[in-house]
Specification:
The protein has a single domain, classed as Porin, CATH 2.40.160. Helix 1 (3-15) runs parallel beside helix 6 and helix 4 (83-94) packs antiparallel against helix 5 (101-121). It has a 14-stranded antiparallel beta barrel with strand order 2-3-5-8-9-10-11-14-15-18-19-20-21-24, surrounded by 4 helices. The termini are far apart. With 437 residues, it is of the alpha+beta class. The protein has 7 helices and 24 strands. Helices cover 19% and strands 46% of the residues.
């Protein structure tokens, strides 16, 4: 079988379900470059701070809707070279039932240390995000403030390797190898609908303090699957194996979350503070294993391997995801003639768990500039780092095209070898058409 193709199939299958709209794994839109700041030139930045909508719509009135909200994707891999190629070769050898004694010993010597390393560094994580066309919808009242409606979806998937020793089994003059090693796949899917309110609450000289709150309705679907490497039959596809078990292992629930934000905007600078998921909503994974006697085929192999991994403490059979609260501080300054240069910084004041078990705490600094150019009226560059978890650092660049389209790309400074080529360990992109009417 082709493990590379199977991985793509998994990503497509799970990505079609949706995921956490405030996923700490990735920012959206121009925030990939600028960080999670409030920017009047970026409509999608109202998701970063509940008070930002009031700032974005100042001096406006009536109804505003968007054209194409940000769509994008990102990935992150562990610090191990040629992971997929090695797993691909291991699966081929596991399917071979006519090995010589030397072939079997060579496979054990090669893959025992590989599986041990892969269990710690063999991460493959992908995610995609998409807004719903016409959202966000804003209504601005000079008397009552700014009301917002927003709808977003995200999809994320995380696969790791569960290690086990290679066993050699002899049949007359032929040998096979066997192992309880497996691929452990977790996915999270959430569709989020948000209702927000913000308004100016205090003015002093040229400064204005904006405050806002957002109530989110979250439908979160969580799933996790164990795919036994030895249990795959000839030509069987990992993606198909996950699809067969996905609905049985998926659990969906609806919960509410709330966010608060404040933003002080003066003539040449702004300062903001936002807190997401104040109430720390909880979501349950479905119990991973059931009565294995009810299973058959690869589902039986997966169930038995999962029971063994749970008994050894390698994975958690019963899991609760708590979307813990996270506070973010932001600051921006306008410099130069006609404020054409902008400096931005943002830092999460604490780390946050994502639904798949990783931890993120972002810090970023960026600069953007405005041109009197219709083709590329704005250019931005940035640097960011995850202060928790993998602690990867990133470079980013973004541009506005034809006054409407926004394209941003971010890539990690660390690299890894894939198919003989060097590639960043993590990268993201986002595209949108930010034009309201």
């Amino acid at each position: 079988m082709n493990f590379r193709f199977s991985t793509l199939a998994i990503c497509f299958f799970v990505g079609s379900t949706a995921a956490h709209a405030n996923d700490p794994f990735q920012s959206i839109g121009a925030s990939i470059t600028t960080g999670n700041i409030s920017l009047q030139q970026n409509m999608s930045s109202i998701s970063n701070n509940p008070a930002a909508a009031s700032y974005f719509t100042q001096n406006e009135s009536g109804l505003m809707v968007n054209i194409l909200p940000p769509i994008g994707a990102g990935y992150e891999v562990g610090q191990i070279d040629s992971l997929i190629d090695e797993l691909d070769e291991l699966i081929d050898i596991l399917e071979n039932d006519n090995l010589t004694a030397q072939d079997a010993l060579d496979a054990k010597d090669r893959f025992d240390p590989f599986l041990e390393l892969a269990s710690t560094d063999g991460l493959v994580k992908v995610a995609g995000h998409a807004g719903i066309p016409l959202f966000p919808i804003l209504y601005v009242s000079s008397e009552f403030g700014t009301f917002t409606l927003n709808a977003k979806i995200n999809g994320s998937l995380r696969s790791t390797v569960i290690d086990d020793n290679i066993d050699i089994i002899g049949f007359n003059d032929s040998f096979v190898i066997n192992t309880s090693a497996a691929v452990y796949v977790k996915s999270a899917g959430l569709t989020q609908f948000s209702v927000g309110y913000s308004r100016p609450v205090w003015k002093f000289n040229e400064g204005v303090l904006h405050a806002g709150t957002t109530l989110n309705i979250n439908r979160l679907s969580l799933s996790k699957n164990i795919i036994s490497l030895a249990g795959l039959e000839d030509g069987e596809n990992i993606g198909d194996a996950i699809k067969d078990d996905y609905e049985n292992n998926e659990q969906s629930s609806i919960n509410l979350s709330s966010d608060l934000g404040a933003l002080w905007v003066d003539a040449n600078y702004s300062l903001g503070l936002s807190i997401k998921d104040i109430n720390a909503p909880e979501y349950d994974y479905k119990t991973l294993t059931s009565d294995c006697s009810q299973e058959q085929g690869i589902s039986l192999d997966n169930c038995l391997v999962a029971q063994e991994a749970i008994a050894q403490g390698k994975i958690n059979g019963q899991e609760i995801y708590i979307a813990n609260a996270q506070a973010t501080f932001e600051a921006s300054a306008w410099l130069g003639n006609e404020n054409k240069w902008l400096l931005h910084t943002a830092i999460d004041l604490n780390d946050k768990n994502d639904p798949l078990g990783d931890v993120y705490q972002w810090a970023s600094v960026s600069v953007s500039t405005q041109f009197n150019n219709w083709v590329i009226p704005s250019l931005r560059i940035g640097y960011s780092q995850n202060l928790a978890g993998t602690e990867l650092s990133y470079y980013s660049v973004g541009m506005t095209l034809f006054k409407r389209a926004q394209l941003d790309v971010r890539w990690s400074s660390d690299s890894v070898d894939v198919d003989g080529s060097t590639t960043p360990r993590s990268a993201f992109f986002s595209f949108s058409i930010q034009s309201q009417f």
